[in-house]
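I am still learning, so can you show me any protein sequence you like together with the matching C-alpha cells, please?
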Amino acid sequence: MQTLREFTRKTKRGNILKIVREHYLRDDIGCGSELCRECFQNEVYQLTSQHANKSTLFKFPHYLVLDTNVVLDQIDVLEEDVLRNVVVLTTVLNEVKHRSSAIYKRFNEIVHDRTRNFYVFVNEHHKETYADREPDETANDRNDRAIRLATKWYDDHLQASQSSKEFERSGKAATRVVLLTDDAANRAKAEAEGILVTTAAEYVKSLEDFPLLMDKLSHKTFDSEKNGLPQYPPHLSMKELLEGLRQNKLLQGTFQASRENYLEGTVNVEKFEKGILIQGRESLNRAVDGDLVAVELLPEAEWSAPSEIVLEEKNVYADEVPSEERAKDENEMLNQVRAAALSAERTPTGRIVGIVRRKWRQYCGILQPSLIEDTNRHIFVPADRKIPRIRIETRQAAMLQNQRIIVTIDTWPRNSRYPHGHFVRSLGPLGDMATENEVILLEHDVPHCKFSDEVLSFLPKMPWTITDEDYSKRVDLRDLYICSVDPPGCTDIDDALHCKELPNGNLEVGVHIADVSHFIRPGNALDMEAAARGTTVYLVGKRIDMVPELLSSNLCSLVGGVERFAFSCVWEVDNEANVLSKRFHKSVIKSKRAMTYEEAQNIIDDATQQNEIAKSLRNLNRLAKILKKRRMDNGALVLASPEIRFQVDSETHEPLEVEVKQMRETNSMVEEFMLLANITVAEHIATEFSECAVLRRHPRPPPTNFDPLVKSARYQGFQVDINSGLELSHSLDKCVKADNPYFNTMIRILTTRCMMQAVYFISGSLQKEEFFHYGLAAPIYTHFTSPIRRYSDIMVHRLLAASIGADSTYAQLLDRKSNEELCHNLNYRHKMAQYAGRASVALNTHLFFRGKEEDEEGYVLFVRKNALQVLIPKYGLEGTLYLKSDKDGKDGVERVKSEIVFTFNEEDHTQRCGDVVFHSFDPVTVRLSLDSSNVQHEKLIFRLVKPYIKGFSVETTTEGTDSQAVSAAPPSKKTKKDKKKK
C-alpha cells in the first residue's frame, strides 16, 4: 500500500520548501515472536521464552518496548547482559541516530548481538503501526504516538496469538508487552490507552536478581535536592541564546577549564586571540571542559588577569554544610586569585550564561566515600583535574575503594554544587600498570579496542604473495641497495633509503615508503577504522596501532631481506645536493638490511667498510649535511625538548632505567631525506589538486608568544630577534655559554614552548601564502613518509597515485568538505596522541621514582611568581619547585616558616630570598622523590638542595631528613617514540 509523507523545510534564503515523498506500507512484516502463529517469519525467532525478564512489577512473561529517551539516557543499563526480549522500533532507531551518533553506534551493537534477543520491528512500514502526522502535531509528539501505537498493536497481536484453546490448556501465563518511557506525558497517554507502561528506573529497581544494575541508572536529580536552594545562576533558554548570539550581545566558544585553578577557565572565541577569561564558580556556571558555551563579556572595568597560582579544591562539601559557609570559603579563594592578578595585564573577562552544546563523555577516576555513614551517595573524583567532581549513587562503594572506575555525567541542576552522574564500570586496581594505561587511553579519547571482525575481513588472506600481475604494474627495484634506519626494536618500518652513483657523476637518491594504500581501499571498514583512529599512539612499552598488526608489523613493514610493495620518490641530484629531476612510482623493493641508528652510524664511521651499503650511507650522510645547512640558511629552526626513554621490564612492564634520547648523525640523515620527500610530494599534489590536496602548515607564532624567551635571554645578556624565522635561528645559534654547555639546549626548549601547533589542512581552504611551515621554513609541506602510523599519509599516497596514473580517484578523495572534516579529526587525534604519550611518560616517571630519593643537578628554566620551573638534564624531565612569595599567604601555598620570604621581581624575572637570587638558567641541585599521599594524583617532589637556604632547603647533614617539602607538578614534557620525522 502506498501513502504520501509531506515535510516542510526552511532553506538558507528563508523560503519554505514543501517536500512530498512516497511511503510504502506492507502487511507481511513479521513480529519476530515464537508465540505468533499468524506472521510470516523469514528468519530465526528473536523474541523467545528462553530468556524471560523477571520483574516484581510485572509478574508474568513480557516483552519490552523502549522509548527514545530510555535508549539515549540509559544506554549503560542496556549494555548489561540483563534485559532480553526487547522490541526495537525503527521510529526509535531513527530518532536515536538523529540525536546521538555515538549512542546509536553503541545501541546498534546491542541490537546486532543475537544472544540479546533484541528484535527490530519496522513499524514505520507496517500498515497497522504507521502513524501519519496530524495537523499542528510536532515531530516529537508524532513519534511518541507512533511508539504507543506500535506497543498497543504488539500487545493485542500477541494476545490474539495466545487465545487458542491449545495455549490455554498449557497453563502458561500470557506474554504481554511493556513500554519503558521516562517521558511523563507519554507515560500518562500510554496509561490512558490501556498500555502497560513504567519508567526505566522503576523497572530496573524491580529486577530483584540484579540489584547492582541500579548503579548504572542515569539520574537527572537526587531526591534530596529537588527543593534545594539555587547555587548557580539560571542558564538562558536556547531561544534567548540564539537571539543574543545573532545580535552580538553574546559570544560563542569552546570552554577550556584550567588544570591548575578550579575557579578559572577560558572560552576560545574567534574575535579574541587568547580567549575570554572566566573566573569564579558562578561565572563558570556549570560549564564542563569541552562544552560549547555562550559568554557575556563583562565591562572593561571588571576585566581581570589569569592567575599564576595553583588552586585545587580540597574540600568536598557534604549536604549538611551551610551554603553561607561554602560561599565564604570560595569567596576567600577567589579574592586570593584576583588579588594576585591585580598587577598583571588584564584580559577580556566574561561570564557563562548558557550551554549551546554539551560535550560530556565517560570519565575515569576514583570514588571518595561520603562523609555520611550508611549512604549510597558518594563523590567521584576524576583523574583529569579539569573535570569537576561528580555525585553518584552506588551500592558497591566498599568494593570500589582503591579501584579506577568510569562515571558519566547525566545532568547538572542549579541547586547542586556538583553534576550528577552514574557508575559505568570498574577498570581495575589503582596503581596497576594495565589499569593506569587504560585510564590514559580513555582520558585522551584514544580508540584502542580490538579491531572488529568486519575490519579484519578486509585484510589480505594469508599466506600472501606477490603475483606476476603485481610485478607487471610496478617498477622493479629489488636490485638496489636499499636499507632502513630506525630506532631499536622498531617493527613498523615504513621508510627505507638508497643512494647510488650514476655514470654522469651525479647521484640517484630514493626514499621508499611502505605502500599501505595498496592494502587499504577507500570506503571499506578497514579504511574507515584507520581514518577514525587517525594515528598510531605510542605509550611507554605499548603501541596502539592505527592499522591491524598484519599490516603494521608484517606485510607493510619494510623488513630486511623480504620483498615489499613501496611508493618510491626518486631524485637525481648533483654532488651539492641540488635536485636535477624527480619521479614517483609504485615499486617492489627488497631491503638489503634493517639497521638501528647506532648500527648505521658505526658503518659510516668504520673506514674499513667499503661495501655498497656503506658507500650508500656515507653519500646519504654527506648530502644530508648539505641539505640541513641549506634549510638552516633559509631560516629553519632547530628546536629542542627534554626527551627521555625508559627501559621496560618485559614481564612486569615497569620502568627499569631512564635515559636521555641520544641523537646521532644518522638521525639527522634520515630526517633530512624524509623532509625532502614530504616537500617534494607536497609541491606535486598541490599542483595537481589545487582544491583538495592534504597539506600540513605550521603557523607563525604571534610576537607575544616570544615574550618569555626574549626576556629570559636578555637577562642572560643575549638578544633574540623574532622578526623572522631566519633571524630567530641566527639568534639562537649565538646563545652559547662556555661555562654552561646545556644553555643553548634550554634556550631552544624555551623556543619550542613559544611555537604554535602544526596542523593538517586542505589546499583549497587557504591562500598559498598561508601554506608556510614556520619551523621548517618551507613554503609548502605535507606528510608522505609514515602511512603505517598516520592516516594523513595514506590520503597523500592516494592523491599522488592518482596524479601519476597508478590508481584511480574517487568522489570523496576530491571532496573538499569531506577532506576538511577528515583534517579536523586528524588534528584532534594527533594532539590527543601527544598528550597520551606525555601522560604515559609521567606515569612511568612516577613508577621509576617510587621509593627512591635522588639528588640531581638541574637548571632553572622559568622563574614564576611563586615557583621555579626546574629542568633535570639527566632524565630530560621538568618539575615545579614552589616558593613562598610573601608574608600574607595570598599565593595559596602552605608555609612552614613564615620568616622564609621569597620576593619576585617582575622586571628582571628573579626570585630573591636573602642573599640568594634565582635567574632563569641558573644551576641548582634538587632532591627528587615521589609524593603518593594523593593516590590519584601522585606528584614528583622537587626540593631544593643547592643553593642552600636555611629553613627551606633540604638538610643534607642528616641523611634522610628534610626541613622543607615543597610539592611539585609532574613533568610537563613527554618522551615521544624515538622518531626521525617531523
